[in-house]
Amino acid sequence: MTERTAGRRLPAAWAEVLGELALTAAAVALALLAGAALLALAGYDVRDAYYNLWDGAFGSVYSVADTLVNAMPLLFAGLAVAFAFRGGLFNIGAEGQLYAGALATAVTAAALAEWPSVPLIAAAMLAGALAGGLWGLVPGALKAKTGAHEVITTIMLNYVAILLTTHLVKQYFKAPGPVDQTALIPAHARLPELIAGTRLTWAVVIGVVLVAAVDWLLRRTSFGFDVVLVGSNPGAAVYAGVPVAARTVWTMAVSGAVAGLAGSTMVLGVLYRFIANFSPGYGFTAVAVALVARARPWGVLPAAVLFGALQAGGLTMQLFARIPADLMTAVQGLVILFVAAPGLLYAWRRLPVAAPRAGTAMTMTAETAAEGAAETAAGPDNETARREAGP
Amino acid sequence: MSEALEAIFHVNTLTSTLRLATPIALAAMAGTLSERVGVINLALEAKLLAGAFAGAYASYVTGSAWLGVGAAVLAGVLIGALLGLFTLRWRANHVVAGIGLNILALGLTTWLLQVIWGSRGTSPVVPDLPGWSIPGLQAVPLLGPLLSGHSPLVYVMLLAGPLLWVWLFKTPGGLRARMIGEHPEAADTVGIPVRRTQFLLLLAAGALAALGGAQLSLGHLSWFSQNMSAGRGYMALAANVFGRWNPLGSMLAALLFAFTDALQMRVQTLPSPPPTELVQMLPYLLTILVVAGAFRKARPPAALGRHYEPGRSGTE
Fold first, then answer.
1. Nearest to B221 by CA among B10, B52, B29, B27
2. B51 Cβ contact list (under 8 Å, min separation 6)
3. Has residue A278 got a pLDDT over 90?
4. Chain A residues with CB inside 8 Å of B86's CB?
5. Chain segment A167-186, per-residue pLDDT in tens
6. What's the pLDDT score for residue A214?
7. Is A284 close to B103, i.e. CB distance below 8 A?
8. Is A142 in the B-facing interface, judged by CB distances under 8 Å?
9. Coil vs helix vs strand at A109
10. Which domain CATH number covers A231?
11. For residue B5, what pLDDT is reported?
12. Out of A166, A386, A389, whose CB is closest to B314?
């Protein structure tokens, strides 16, 4: 850890980002290599498969647009997970939060159909953010009040959200027909196309603005400072008089609101209605996105594009090479594992693993969150005991 | 109302509780074993799913459900080894590694389901485990119908609880294991092989949880279906917390979760059932309530989730 903590600030920061980029590239390459091995074992033509994967992801303007469309829910949900990570919390509940947001958006868009376009879209998105925020607030409050680990509660709330939205649609908002879905939202409630002829909408612009907003929130506001402090060093946060419990609740609420917007943009820009069970697991892929982004808001942008590309390419691979696209889910799991294991990718250089830095390095925030359970039960006095026995 | 009460205490509800509890209980005890040596085991979900798939596939290929159980155990041990490599050796964050393994197992089993059987839903029916009837027990009123005729894995679960409890709390081996979870440095100092013990217990936990997976595809049903574990691994982890990191407690908590699950199935057969989705929420809601309530009193192993590097230098 010596050469990385010493020295001039700016170049060191850039060196860190470059080093992480290299590690991420290596992790993705390794995961795709493992995917190729699986394809070969199953008797598929690996070159044909990966040619289609590339072609479907980046082969033409339309492929790129498709990649970006697939990246949109991952951008919002990934940003949500990354924000919670920075606050030391594992929000595995983006899936449930985006369901809550999607249904609220669809219902609002239908209820306010008389409104003109821009305020209507704004109101529908606000409803989505509120619903997602409420769904995120619950595990935050449970954690703050009882110490219930948010990993378990958010995962359970995912199932509850999927079942509850299905029930609500069936019972109150169902459009005629066999599918459990709402009626189409009015045309003027839909997000306009950004590039004609593609499915790419203004959601991209909203997403980038939101990334900038979250980055600003974390860097430039006292709320963001508290969040990062609680995430990187809860002991110090208590000592500094930060109301840790309240910050935990708010961190989860904000994270849930951002994830709710993932559902809103799906409804307003892609589906044009709420469909029960519509998400193929965006909320879980979002965890991978946040990890690859090292929980940095601006890092979420390329990370979401990467996973959007895997999805768009995977579908092309399924269509033309007749290989089930679910292989890409396995590749995502491998990317998570490789990115999360600093020891593995440093091993070839025989370097000691760098100690994580406060606030920026994923491992640090993740570490504290993982030990949240221990912390609430055993009290802050074993703080030092829980620190790594590093060099 | 009397209909509802009848549903609750019907013997079928209780027997299906036992059947449904087996995967959760076996996984929960696996969670207890790994968390007692300081490793957060979110990969229980992966082990259940991989165990269910490997079990069904081996049974399909060989025609023997018992070989299926063997294959399930192998798959579970493999995932246990991966969790050990990533968390212990390569210092991945425990929660993140667990989530990675779960997504890997979900993607891989769904992919293989299509590659092998050409369906994204379920596998064909495979030979399943026979129901065992215990001689003599059947004649006993009440207990007889409740306890006989289950898949062998149900009895494995019922035996594993007390046996693991004895091992963990009444033998020197169990004491050493618990010491690692509380204070690895101290364990290292008195000569306990920290890394090796942790690794072995992760392998054992993998085998145990995968038996739960085999119960899903070979005991309870006789086929594999996509994402068959459906969050039971996470429920198992909650059961472990509710059971206070105690194998018997884990088992009892799993029985409670399974009871609500059996109940919701039973309630749906009533003449005027309440909305399906609302009833299906019950086990998940109960899990949340239990975790929120249990954390007030319970204390996890002190070194849970920590990275400990045995030896002198601190790095390898």
1. B52
2. B72, B73, B75, B76, B209, B210, B211, B212, B213, B214, B216
3. yes
4. 337, 340-341, 344
5. 999 999 999 988 899 999 99
6. 95
7. yes
8. yes
9. helix
10. 1.10.3470
11. 65
12. A389
Domain assignment present for A283: yes
- Chain B contact for A276 (CB, 8 A cutoff): no
A383 pLDDT band, cuts 50/70/90, is very low
The reply to whether residue A352 touches residue B90, judged by beta carbons under 8 angstroms, is: no
Cβ contact A336–B103 (<8 Å): yes
* Cβ-nearest to A374 among B100, B288, B302: B302
Domain containing A42: what range? 23-375
Which residue type occupies B298?
A
Is A387 among the domain residues?
no
Rounded to two decimals, the pTM is: 0.85
User: ipTM greater than 0.90, yes or no?
Assistant: no
| Interface A-B: count of C-beta contacts within 8 A | 201
> What confidence score (pLDDT) does residue B96 get?
87
* Residue whose C-alpha is closest to residue A214's, from A227, A203, A204, A201: A227
Give the model's pLDDT for residue A376.
36
CA distance A150 to B293: 13
Half-sphere exposure of A54 (CA within 13 A, CB side): 7
Tell me whether residues A148 and B302 touch, CB distance under 8 A. no
In a domain, A383, yes or no: no
Rounded CA Rg of chain B = 20
Tokens at residue B49, please?
């799913």
Residue B177 to residue B172: CA distance in whole angstroms: 9
Q: Is there a domain that residue A3 lies in?
A: no
List per-block mean pLDDT (blocks of 10 residues) for chain B, which spans 316 residues. 63 85 95 93 94 96 94 97 92 88 95 91 89 74 75 91 95 92 89 92 96 93 91 89 89 90 82 83 87 73 82 43
Mean pLDDT of A324-348: 82
Q: How far is CA B305 from CA A52, A116, A217, A372, B310, in A?
A: 41, 53, 30, 10, 15
Please, which residues 124-183 of chain B have a Cβ atom closer than 8 Å to chain A?
none
Q: Does A159 touch chain B (CB under 8 A)?
A: yes
Report how far residue A368's alpha carbon sits from residue A386's, in angstroms, rounded to the nearest whole number. Answer: 9
The span from the CA of B37 to the CA of A281, in Å, is 32
Q: What is the pLDDT of residue B230?
A: 86
Q: Which long-range contacts (CB under 8 A, 24 or more apart) does B10-17 make?
A: B10/B266, B11/B142, B11/B145, B11/B146, B12/B266, B13/B259, B13/B262, B13/B263, B13/B266, B14/B146, B14/B262, B15/B145, B15/B146, B15/B150, B16/B262, B16/B265, B16/B266, B17/B255, B17/B258, B17/B259, B17/B261, B17/B262
DSSP characters over A128-168: HHHHHHHHHHHHHHHHHHH---HHHHHHHHHHHHHHHHHHH
CA distance A31 to A45: 18
Chain A environment of B91 (Cβ under 8 Å): 341-343, 353
Average pLDDT, chain A: 84
* Tally of domains in chain A: 1
In order of their start, the domains of chain B are: 2-126+150-294 (1.10.3470.10)
Cβ–Cβ below 8 Å for B278 and A385: no
Contacts of B93 in chain A (CB under 8 A): 340, 362-363, 366-367, 370
How many Cβ atoms are within 10 Å of A116's Cβ, its own excluded? 9
The DSSP bridge partners found for residue B132 are B150
User: Which of B295, B308, B309 should we substitute to test contact with A (largest number of A Cβ atoms within 10 Å)?
Assistant: B295
Tell me whether residues B103 and A326 touch, CB distance under 8 A. Answer: no
Angstrom distance (rounded) from CA B275 to CA B268:
8
Least trusted range by pLDDT, from A17-26, A113-122, A247-256, B210-219: A17-26
Question: Which residues in chain B touch residue A148, judged by CB atoms under 8 angstroms apart?
Answer: 288, 291-292, 295
